[in-house]
Specification:
alpha+beta, BirA Bifunctional Protein, domain 2, 2 domains, nine-stranded mixed beta sheet, three-stranded antiparallel beta sheet, 11 helices, 12 strands
């Protein structure tokens, strides 16, 4: 009997895990729809331009590309669903009211880290039209409640803020190449890499070097940050936002930490960012944050960019394994 081999990092899901994943999906979707988020289901493939428009260009390297035999146009298989929800918000509605959407579906990525799957089932929620801390607080509370529904507790949520880094880059007048190098150095928590960067003013070098160590218990980390960061309105606002959202997470029953050097999706996100872990493990349960303007390219030229924030449970298979004895 011939043994068929699947593509690398693509797997079948067999019983009983398939049933557990489906129950997890239903539980999460029920939690989101119970909270007033309307379920939408965008297609697995779209014209490549639509998938990668605007901030979606960050996903280009992860996107499978193919030619549509009907039209001859270039299509993409979605590596992420959020840009599609932004397109739905921008193209099917003609007012600026607050809108809430949720989704469940498969994404496919051209690349993944060793040991990670490239085909993932995800569930998420997106909030459009609600700016600032109010919207961020709603999304964080919703994520915690949805996780509780499927026994993904306790959660540890690690918060950061892209706006803080962007304010510092503007303040110090840094070039795009220096910004990219700093992003990589901060991700690696490498103060030595920052010290070796050419073209970085000495005062900036000192601030970003300290930023690599600005993580851990929220109150102490934010207090320390106020002491060494420049006293800029945008910096104060970012630190205040982080303090408020940590309090929200605690009130909702989650643990929280702060990492001021963690900048996922730097060109995609615009404010708060967070990663949720299953308590006592390194298992990432969800990722999210604010990405104002994600659907701007889909709007009429005179229309203002829409505030947007949301999160995604990024891999239901991993979540099901982590929360069930299989």
């Amino acid at each position: 009997m011939r043994k068929w081999v699947l593509p690398d990092q693509v797997e079948d899901v067999l019983p009983p895990l398939a049933g557990v994943i489906e129950a997890t999906r239903r539980g999460l979707v029920d939690a989101l729809t119970d909270a007033g988020y309307d379920l939408v289901s965008p297609p697995l493939v779209e014209h490549l331009e639509a998938l990668l428009t605007g901030t979606g260009h960050d996903l280009e390297a992860a996107t499978f590309k193919l030619i549509d035999p009907l039209s001859g146009k270039l299509l993409g298989v979605r590596p992420d669903i959020t840009p599609q929800i932004a397109r739905i918000d921008a193209t099917y509605f003609d007012d600026d009211s607050v809108r809430r959407f949720c989704y469940a579906g498969t994404v496919l990525r051209a690349h993944a880290a060793p040991g990670e799957a490239r085909a993932l089932t995800q569930v998420g929620a997106e909030l459009f039209g609600q700016a600032g801390p109010t919207g961020d607080a709603e999304i964080v509370r919703l994520m915690i409640e949805a996780a509780r529904r499927v026994n993904a507790v306790p959660l540890l949520i690690d918060f950061g803020h892209v706006g803080l880094f962007k304010a510092l880059v503007t303040h110090f007048g840094l070039t795009e190449s220096t910004r990219s190098a700093l992003d990589a150095a901060l991700a690696a928590k490498s103060s030595s890499a920052i010290a070796a960067l050419s073209g970085l003013p000495e005062d900036a070098r000192a601030v970003f070097g300290r930023l690599t160590r600005a993580f851990g218990e929220p109150e102490a980390t934010l207090r320390e940050a106020r002491g060494f960061l420049p006293d800029l309105p945008a910096v104060r606002e970012a630190l205040d936002d982080l303090g408020r959202i940590v309090a929200v997470a605690h009130e909702a029953g989650a643990q929280a930490s702060v990492d001021l050097a963690d900048l996922p999706g730097l060109d995609y996100h615009t404010g708060l960012v967070f990663v949720a872990y299953l308590g006592g493990t390194t298992e990432v349960v969800a990722r999210g944050g604010r990405y104002d303007g994600v659907g701007e390219a889909f709007l009429a030229s005179e229309a203002p960019a829409r505030p947007a924030t949301g999160f995604s449970f990024i891999d239901l298979r991993a979540l099901a394994v982590a929360t069930h004895a299989l």
